[in-house]
UniProtKB/TrEMBL annotation:
<protein>
    <recommendedName>
        <fullName>ABC transporter domain-containing protein</fullName>
    </recommendedName>
</protein>
<dbReference type="GO" id="GO:0005524">
    <property type="term" value="F:ATP binding"/>
</dbReference>
<dbReference type="Pfam" id="PF00005">
    <property type="entry name" value="ABC_tran"/>
</dbReference>
<dbReference type="InterPro" id="IPR027417">
    <property type="entry name" value="P-loop_NTPase"/>
</dbReference>
<dbReference type="InterPro" id="IPR017871">
    <property type="entry name" value="ABC_transporter-like_CS"/>
</dbReference>
<keyword id="KW-0067">ATP-binding</keyword>
<dbReference type="GO" id="GO:0016887">
    <property type="term" value="F:ATP hydrolysis activity"/>
</dbReference>
<dbReference type="GO" id="GO:0055085">
    <property type="term" value="P:transmembrane transport"/>
</dbReference>
<dbReference type="InterPro" id="IPR050319">
    <property type="entry name" value="ABC_transp_ATP-bind"/>
</dbReference>
<feature type="domain" description="ABC transporter">
    <location>
        <begin position="5"/>
        <end position="250"/>
    </location>
</feature>
<comment type="similarity">
    <text>Belongs to the ABC transporter superfamily.</text>
</comment>
<keyword id="KW-0813">Transport</keyword>
<dbReference type="InterPro" id="IPR003439">
    <property type="entry name" value="ABC_transporter-like_ATP-bd"/>
</dbReference>
<dbReference type="InterPro" id="IPR003593">
    <property type="entry name" value="AAA+_ATPase"/>
</dbReference>
<keyword id="KW-0547">Nucleotide-binding</keyword>
Length: 254
C-alpha cells in the first residue's frame, strides 16, 4: 500500500542577513534530509528533544511551510509544486491541531464561527458544524458561546472539530495534549483513537510524553538535531532503542 503522506529528503533552514543586504550566510539547517512515510489509517509518532525540529517538521508536512529542498507528497502529489487546482483540493485533506488550546482559538469568534471557518458558504454548512461538534462530544447549544466559556479540554475538542470539518485524511497534531491535565489528556487521546477508527484518519502525532506516543502510535521517528536518527515500529523503538538520542529520551522519561 502506498503511503498517504511522504517526506522525501526534506531540508529546511533559515538565511541570516549581514549588514549588507546582498551578503547572506546560511545557518545550520533546522531539518536535514528528512524522509518518512505515513500510512493511511495509522499514526506516526514523532519524538525528540526540545529544539530538534519537531514543530517545524509539522508545519512542513501540513503544507504551511515549503521545504528548501526535498518534497512532501500527499497521495503522490507534491504540496509545493502541484498545479494550483490540485493544491486547492489537497489543502482540506491535511489539517493541524496545535499545542495551546487557549491561544489557538480566536476569542472574538463564537464556536460556530471557529469550527466553520474553513468551509465555504453552503446550505449544509451549519449542519456540518453541529455534526463536527457532536463527534467530539460537544452539544449544539455550545455553538454560539465564546472560547472563554470553555475549559482547556473543551477548547481542544473545539480545535479537533475544526480540523474534522473539512473531512481530512491526515491530521497533524503538534503536542496536542501537553497543555492538559492527565485525566483530560486521557479523554482527548481516547477521542482521537475513536476518530481514527471511525474515519480511517492518519495522524502525525508529536509529543514529549512517550507514554502518549506508545498509546497512539504504530510507528515512531526519532528526531535529533534536525535529523531522523531512528525509525520503525513503535514497540521496537521504545523497547529496544539503538540510538543514543532515543535512549536519552527514554532515560529522561522513566
Amino acid at each position: 500500500m502506498s503511503p498517504i503522506l511522504q517526506a522525501r529528503a526534506v531540508t529546511y533552514g533559515k538565511m541570516d542577513r549581514h549588514i549588507f543586504p546582498f551578503l547572506r550566510r546560511e545557518s545550520s539547517p533546522i531539518l536535514k534530509e528528512i524522509s518518512l512515510d505515513l500510512q493511511e489509517g495509522q499514526t506516526l509518532g514523532i519524538i525528540g528533544a526540545s529544539g530538534s525540529g519537531k514543530s517545524t517538521l509539522c508545519r512542513i508536512l501540513s503544507g504551511l511551510v515549503a521545504p528548501d529542498e526535498g518534497q512532501v507528497l500527499y497521495q503522490g502529489q507534491d504540496l509545493a509544486t502541484a498545479p494550483v487546482q490540485v493544491r486547492k483540493e489537497i489543502r482540506p485533506a491535511i489539517q493541524m491541531i496545535f499545542q495551546d488550546p487557549y491561544g489557538a482559538l480566536d476569542p472574538r469568534q463564537t464556536v460556530r464561527d471557529i469550527v466553520g471557518e474553513p468551509l465555504d458558504p453552503a446550505p449544509d454548512r451549519d449542519a456540518r458544524i453541529l455534526t463536527a461538534l457532536k463527534e467530539v462530544g460537544l452539544s449544539a447549544d455550545m455553538a454560539d458561546r465564546y472560547p472563554r466559556a470553555f475549559s482547556g479540554g473543551q477548547r481542544q475538542r473545539i480545535a479537533i472539530a475544526r480540523a474534522l470539518i473539512t473531512r481530512p485524511s491526515v491530521i497533524i497534531a503538534d503536542e496536542a495534549v501537553s497543555a492538559l491535565d492527565v485525566s483530560t489528556q486521557a479523554i482527548v487521546l481516547n477521542l482521537l483513537l475513536d476518530l481514527r477508527q471511525r474515519h480511517g484518519l492518519a495522524y502525525v502525532f508529536v509529543s514529549h510524553d512517550l507514554a502518549v506516543i506508545r498509546h497512539l502510535s504504530h510507528h515512531i521517528a526519532v528526531l535529533d538535531q534536525g535529523r531522523i536518527v531512528e525509525s520503525g515500529p513503535a514497540s521496537d523503538i521504545l523497547d529496544t532503542p539503538t540510538q543514543p538520542a532515543t535512549k536519552a529520551l527514554l532515560e529522561n522519561t522513566y
